[in-house]
């Protein structure tokens, strides 16, 4: 089997995407978990890395071979035709051992539960030379009539027309009998023996293959555009997968953009809420704020939240506008939402306002990190351009300046993880666990901003200082994920 084994450790890459083709607020998440090359700083070993994940990248023919091996094994075990074996495996998520055990206990019940046989045996049809098809109301020769195990007989032309309509609507493995209130499934060989048009047969087989893959717990299609890769993993975990073919990074469990530490259900709720409340939150998405000291208007043109006013040189936090000098001890308060302890006793109107205030607090930070990622993509491109200039001037080689690319890649990875901590925190219940999470979130945020500050000033930042900051930021990220990544 031609497969590519990939293991997902906490490494970063030189991302080769073209930032000139991106809008200012557009973030291409697919590159923040790439793994084209290793980073030189210390990495946790696979046993300690909460994101470590082994999987195979399969081609279509490899998946077809894998599925057929299961079908053949079940056919041999139960002595049934391949078409029945496919239905049984598909209906039981390809758990062959479970199907064999159920068949051993009660084969008829297995067939009934799999919608292959009716619960009560139907009466045999009346034998005659011709038969009236109840669909087209035409009398047809008995050899032109077809039936499933339910004994509902219709002419071949009506079956063919029915199957064609179902297939064109995207139905394949779920096609049921035409009989009223009959849910007996049409097997693959029954459909293909009736459908004659090559394009319809091909479409049916493609849809059926897609259904088989989706029902298999170890398989998932890569969600990348026009990508035919199928990922195989031994466990259906909430872990990141990076497709080598199209570079798409996604969560294996749900197929969405990778979203650690937030779980799949929570991120779906969060994205739905953001879409529903986007107009309400638009006013807090502005790119400019006033300096808290001299009140001059400042535009944020980098990813770092450590701002310095160009006029009065005051250092402050973009998010809370507080003095940056105090963020070493107060950063926890900056990233932590302060709830009203008496909110339960307030009026419904006040509670609604408090709920909106809480949502906007988390949404602003979520949106800010998304914008910072887009801005840092431009910073990364500037660093690549500067490295290219230095190499052309014989001021070192690409290897000599590789640590700068590693720093930008790690910064994007850490900020990406940090962005997804805010939906997680928004839905967490109050208590000791949330307190610990917010503390670790704040620690990560502080180190990410320190790293961002140093990366944006890479040419005047000491290499040892930058690499040390990279190590600290990644360890903060790993610590948070070890404690809160639920797979």
UniProtKB/TrEMBL annotation:
Listed name of the protein: RBR-type E3 ubiquitin transferase
EC number(s) stated in the UniProt entry for this protein: 2.3.2.31
InterPro entries in UniProt: Ariadne, BRcat_RBR_TRIAD1, E3_UB_ligase_RBR, IBR_dom, Rcat_RBR_TRIAD1, TRIAD_supradom, Znf_RING/FYVE/PHD
Reaction equation(s) it catalyzes: [E2 ubiquitin-conjugating enzyme]-S-ubiquitinyl-L-cysteine + [acceptor protein]-L-lysine = [E2 ubiquitin-conjugating enzyme]-L-cysteine + [acceptor protein]-N(6)-ubiquitinyl-L-lysine
RING-type domain span: 129-338
Keywords, sorted A to Z: Coiled coil, Metal-binding, Nucleus, Repeat, Transferase, Ubl conjugation pathway, Zinc, Zinc-finger
Residue stretches of biased makeup (Acidic residues): 13-28
Residue ranges the record marks as coiled coil: 441-483
EC category: transferase
SMART domains attached to this UniProt entry: IBR
Subcellular location field: Nucleus
SUPFAM superfamilies named among the record's database cross-references: RING/U-box
Organism: Lingula anatina
CDD domains cross-referenced by the UniProt entry: BRcat_RBR_TRIAD1 (cd20344), Rcat_RBR_TRIAD1 (cd20360), RING-HC_RBR_TRIAD1 (cd16773)
């Amino acid at each position: 089997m031609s497969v590519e084994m990939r293991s997902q450790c906490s490494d970063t890459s030189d991302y080769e995407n073209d930032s000139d083709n991106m809008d200012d607020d557009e973030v291409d998440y697919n590159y923040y978990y790439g793994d084209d090359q290793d980073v030189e700083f210390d990495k946790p070993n696979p046993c300690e890395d909460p994101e470590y994940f082994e999987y195979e990248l399969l081609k279509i023919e490899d998946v077809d071979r894998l599925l057929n091996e299961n079908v053949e094994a079940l056919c041999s075990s139960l002595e049934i035709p391949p078409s029945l074996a496919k239905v049984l495996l598909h209906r039981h998520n390809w758990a062959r051992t479970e199907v064999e055990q159920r068949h051993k206990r009660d084969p008829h019940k297995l067939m009934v539960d799999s919608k292959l046989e009716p619960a009560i045996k139907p009466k045999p049809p009346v034998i005659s030379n011709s038969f009236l098809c109840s669909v087209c109301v035409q009398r047809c020769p008995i050899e032109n009539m077809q039936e499933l195990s339910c004994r509902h007989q219709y002419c071949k032309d009506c079956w063919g027309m029915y199957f064609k309509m179902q297939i064109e609507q995207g139905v394949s493995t779920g096609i049921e009998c035409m009989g009223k209130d009959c849910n007996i499934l049409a097997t693959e060989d029954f459909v293909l023996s009736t459908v004659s048009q090559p394009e319809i047969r091909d479409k049916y087989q493609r849809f059926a293959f897609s259904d088989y893959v989706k029902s298999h717990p170890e398989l998932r299609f890569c969600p990348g555009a026009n990508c035919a890769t199928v990922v195989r993993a031994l466990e259906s975990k909430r872990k990141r997968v990076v497709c080598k073919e199209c570079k798409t990074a996604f969560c294996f469990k749900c197929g969405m953009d990778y979203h650690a530490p937030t779980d799949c259900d929570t991120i779906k709720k969060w994205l739905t809420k953001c879409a529903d409340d986007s107009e309400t939150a638009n006013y807090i998405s502005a790119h400019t704020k006033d300096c808290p000291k001299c009140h001059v208007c400042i535009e944020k043109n980098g990813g770092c939240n450590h701002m310095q006013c160009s006029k009065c040189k005051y250092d402050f936090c973009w998010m809370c506008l507080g003095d940056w000098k105090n963020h070493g001890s107060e950063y926890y308060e900056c990233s932590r939402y302060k709830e009203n302890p008496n909110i339960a006793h307030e009026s419904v109107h006040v509670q609604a306002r408090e709920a909106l205030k809480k949502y906007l607090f988390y949404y602003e930070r979520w949106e800010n990190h998304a914008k910072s990622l887009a801005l840092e993509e431009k910073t990364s491109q500037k660093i690549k351009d500067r490295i290219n200039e230095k190499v052309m001037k014989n001021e070192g080689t690409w290897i000599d300046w590789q640590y700068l690319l590693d720093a930008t890649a790690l910064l994007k990875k850490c900020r990406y993880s940090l962005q997804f901590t805010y939906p997680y925190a928004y839905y967490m219940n109050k208590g000791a666990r949330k307190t610990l999470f917010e503390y670790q979130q704040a620690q990560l945020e502080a180190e990410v901003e320190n790293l961002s500050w140093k990366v944006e000033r890479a040419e005047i930042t000491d290499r040892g200082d930058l690499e040390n900051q990279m190590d600290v930021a990644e360890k903060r990220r790993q610590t948070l994920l070890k404690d809160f990544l639920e797979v």
